[in-house]
Design brief:
The complex is a heterodimer of chains A (262) and B (557). Chain A has a two-stranded antiparallel sheet with strand order 1-2. About 2% of the residues of chain A have low confidence. In chain A, α7 packs across α10 and α9 packs across α10. Chain A is built from 11 helices and 2 strands. By secondary structure, chain A is an all-alpha fold. Chain B is mainly alpha-helical and 557 residues long. Chain B contains 21 helices and 10 strands. In chain B, β9 and β10 form a beta hairpin. The C terminus of chain B is likely disordered. The chains are: A mainly alpha (262), B mainly alpha (557). At the A-B interface, α7, α8, β1, β2 and α10 of A face α6, α11, α12 and α16 of B.
């Protein structure tokens, strides 16, 4: 310690300190940024997949995303978005996009599973990004109650507590999550498609994501214990129902009860 | 009864044991007298007269189902870990209130059904009060002598909303907590006393550990007691005033045409109770309401999308949603002497509701001041025959509906695939111009209907039969109306504006001038009912028509 304190006025001390600081921040940054993309394994993709994917990409996607997925005025660069992003966007039919707008709509997928796989392989080969989640994260065997808590804290403000969807500004929206596969839900959390923020593994751990998927699948399987759920939209749907159906039926009865006179 | 008369009248002895017991009770409480009086009470029959009954029956259903729920509900905000049978919430930390609500839903036989009965009945209760009030307003049933009863009814509406809101907040789920948070925000926005009031109400900083228990007491004790009291007053006044009736031949301000309460009306009303109960039970059995298990326990941090109050508080929520935070560079938040005045919360939360309720309470007196009408009215107006009142009512209703719709702006946006911002902009514009358009359109529609009535009264109903006369002219045959139908079309009052009159000192006061101005505005556009002379003339005009026989028949009165 004494040696260190004696050398603190050494001409090179400032440079040494600067170097140390840079190393620490750089190192921390490197760790922080790779937390989310470290699993960008292209191991399950063959060279053939990548080659086929490139052909598909050039024929169907390059118009907007540019040759080599480097982006153009009409679409962002896809270098580094990862296989998960492609699998989500193409797998749910959002890409190729139907038209420009605030948000791409879910629609019947344009590519079959093999083609989606090839496209994912190609885009994953361009740069490291979130990979397609592994099977054990999608087994729906997590802790539903914990997933529910995570969902309410992180997701419900846009997607609704019952995952029925909700509005965002200027025509954007958070879609309902019923009938969305666990894989796509997981990929959406990892990649933040459309207007959704990214929930990195540092934010919600892979186990947490597994719990969320478990929760969503469980409430979907549970159905609605109290009868028809009226879209799970809350008091607005209930109010509409009581005014239209409830009062409607009662008015019909009042007319029937008083129909014999006057 | 004197000793002499007792000796004269042979003592009545009932033959059966039941009869003797009845006689015993009757001799002591005078039941037969009451029954005779009430049994003869005549009620006119019309479907639109039954919404008050629907409200009353909903209230009875609420008392029954609510009592059931109190057996298991525990209004404690103590923390616990859920241990019931709903797996997605297993071991989640929550309040005892929420946990017991979940137990009612999942672990108590019939509990979920009763919860849903209670909640659907609550929605129906307020809805039927609303429709009942609309009927009373548009038919002018609030006029003398029923002004006080209109006020009691308005108090009932506010109490019903209070009952609904306190109940909505009890389960301590995320949705109800968010609702309380908004109320807390509104209270805190009140200048000077706001923060103190909030701390007083919540027993400290929101949410605290006291509010559910306090709301529970209000919900099951104070508010229902007040509602009951008001219902008694309301019905008492209905009996005193007698029921109103729609205009018709033989009906006037001195009589009531209809069925006596006993036996026909009592049977009908009794049966109707079970119909309402049945409808509510079916809704509760097949349609879920307030699925608290979806929302999770209350936690001040998350706010779910689609968080709305029940429909009757919706218009306040909508007004809050419509209020801009800033307009250009104009802010609505000021700091005065170190205190923050947040007009962007205070204005929308209190002003529209304040205007709405003030006008509602005052309206009978406002109208009678303008029209100088101090007579008793027991025959109702058809809405078209009071065009300005109808227009005022429609304008108020549209204003309410704009705010109401704003509470669902997010769902309008998602379900019609439009931008949430555009929905808000349109509703903001409609907030101001909607009532004006509604006033003009409703008034014109009312006047047009009056003209149509007049036309039909004078010239009869168009039959669609085209007849060619011998000289080549084509005419459409009009069938004259029978007397009863015509009475409805011509038997109404259409007052003309009352000019300002000097008071006892011979002075026309400024207030009287204002009244005269409003009277002109109120009655200026009017369609007078067809007079007997006009009827005569109109029928004379058709004399050469082919159906001479029919014509002469209609002229004969």
């Amino acid at each position: 310690m004494k040696a260190l304190s004696q050398k603190r006025r050494h001409p090179l001390a400032v440079i040494a300190l600067l170097l140390m600081g840079l190393l620490v921040t750089g190192g921390l940054y490197a760790i922080a940024t790779t937390v989310n993309e470290a699993k960008a394994s292209t191991t399950s993709f063959t060279a053939n997949d990548t080659a086929e994917g490139e052909k598909l990409f050039e024929a169907n996607c390059a118009t907007c995303h540019g040759m080599g997925a480097s982006g153009s005025q009409d679409g962002p660069s896809l270098v580094g978005v990862g296989a998960a992003s492609v699998d989500f966007q193409v797998g749910t039919g959002r890409m190729p996009m139907q038209m420009n707008g605030p948000q791409a709509y879910k629609k019947p997928a344009q590519f079959n599973e093999a083609q989606t796989h090839q496209l994912s392989a190609y885009v994953a080969s361009l740069g490291a990004g979130p990979a397609i989640p592994e099977e054990h994260l999608l087994d729906e065997q997590g802790d539903a109650a914990k997933g529910g808590e995570l969902f309410r804290v992180n997701c419900a403000m846009c997607h609704n507590a019952a995952a029925a969807g909700g509005a965002l500004t200027r025509g954007k929206f958070a879609p309902a999550l019923a009938d969305v596969s666990g894989k796509h839900i997981y990929e959406a959390m990892v990649t933040g498609p459309q207007n959704m923020p990214v929930f990195s593994d540092a934010n919600v751990t892979p186990e947490g994501k597994r719990d969320i998927v478990t929760f969503l699948k469980q409430i979907e399987a549970n159905g609605s214990p109290g009868g028809a759920d009226l879209g799970a939209l809350g008091p607005v749907a209930e109010g509409l129902f009581v005014w239209v159906a409830g009062l409607g039926v009662i008015i019909a009865f009042t007319i029937w009860l008083t129909s014999r006179t006057s | 009864m004197s000793a002499a008369s007792r000796a004269e009248a042979p003592a009545f002895v009932a033959k059966t044991k039941a009869g003797r017991i009845t006689d015993f009770v009757d001799a002591r409480v005078g039941g037969s007298g009451i029954l005779r009086e009430f049994g003869r009470k005549v009620f006119p029959d019309h479907w639109s007269f039954m919404f008050g009954e629907v409200a009353l029956y909903s209230f009875v259903i609420l008392l029954l189902s609510g009592t059931f729920l109190t057996f298991w509900f525990d209004p404690s905000m103590a923390e616990t870990h859920y241990d019931g049978s709903y797996l997605p919430l297993k071991n989640v930390e929550m309040s005892v209130a929420y946990s017991s609500s979940l137990d009612i839903s999942f672990d108590i036989r019939g509990g979920l059904f009763m919860r849903q009965v209670h909640h659907w009945a609550a929605l129906l209760f307020v809805a039927s009060i609303g429709v009942h009030m609309l009927r009373v307003f548009f038919t002018g049933a609030f006029r003398k002598p029923r002004e006080m009863n209109w006020v009691v009814g308005s108090v009932l509406l506010i109490l019903a909303m209070a009952a609904g809101f306190t109940g909505y907040s009890l389960p301590d789920d995320l949705l109800s907590g968010n609702g309380l948070r908004i109320i807390d925000g509104v209270i805190k926005s009140i200048p000077v006393v706001g923060t103190y009031t909030s701390f007083f109400l919540f027993g400290g900083e929101f949410p605290g550990t006291a509010v559910i228990g306090r709301l529970y007491m209000l919900h099951i004790l104070l508010v229902p007691a007040l509602i009951l009291l008001m219902i008694v007053l309301h019905l008492f006044m209905v009996v005193v005033h007698k029921h109103t009736q729609y205009p018709g031949p033989g009906r006037n301000d001195g009589n009531v045409v209809g069925y006596p309460l006993g036996p026909v009306y009592a049977a009908k009303a009794g049966g109707f109770f079970f119909i309402v109960f049945g409808v509510v039970a079916l809704m509760a059995a097949f349609f879920t309401i307030n699925p608290i298990w979806n929302y999770g326990p209350y936690d001040p941090s998350p706010v779910s999308a689609g968080t709305q109050p029940d429909w009757y508080i919706g218009f306040v929520d909508g007004a809050l949603r419509l209020m801009p935070g800033v307009i250009g560079d104009f802010h609505f938040e000021y700091v005065i002497f170190g205190y923050t005045l947040t007009l962007n919360v205070l204005l929308p939360a209190l002003v529209p509701a304040g205007i709405l309720f003030t006008v509602m309470f005052m309206y009978p007196w406002i109208e009678s001041w303008i029209t100088k009408d101090t007579r008793e009215h027991h025959v109702l107006d058809r809405p078209r025959n009071a065009p300005t009142r109808t227009a005022i009512g429609v304008a108020g209703f549209v204003w309410y509906c704009v705010m109401w719709a704003a509470a669902g702006s997010d769902l309008i946006a998602t379900h019609f695939h439009v931008s949430l911002n555009d929905v808000t902009y349109w509703l903001r514009a409609l907030f101001f111009i909607g009532p004006v358009i509604a006033f003009i359109v409703a008034k014109r529609v009312a006047l047009a209907l009056q003209r149509k009535d007049r036309e039909i009264a004078l010239h009869g109903r168009e039959t669609g039969r085209i007849v060619r006369l011998p000289h080549g002219e084509f005419i459409e045959v009009h069938a004259p109306l029978d007397e009863y139908k015509r009475y409805k079309l011509v038997g109404f009052e259409s007052p003309s504006p009352l000019p300002a009159v000097p008071n006892d000192h011979g002075i026309v006061t400024r207030k009287e001038k204002q009244r005269a101005f409003l009277s002109k505005w109120f009655f200026e556009d009017r369609v007078a009912p067809a007079t007997p002379a006009e009827l005569e003339a109109a029928h004379g005009h058709h004399a050469p028509a082919v159906e001479a026989g029919e014509e002469s028949k209609s002229l004969s009165h």
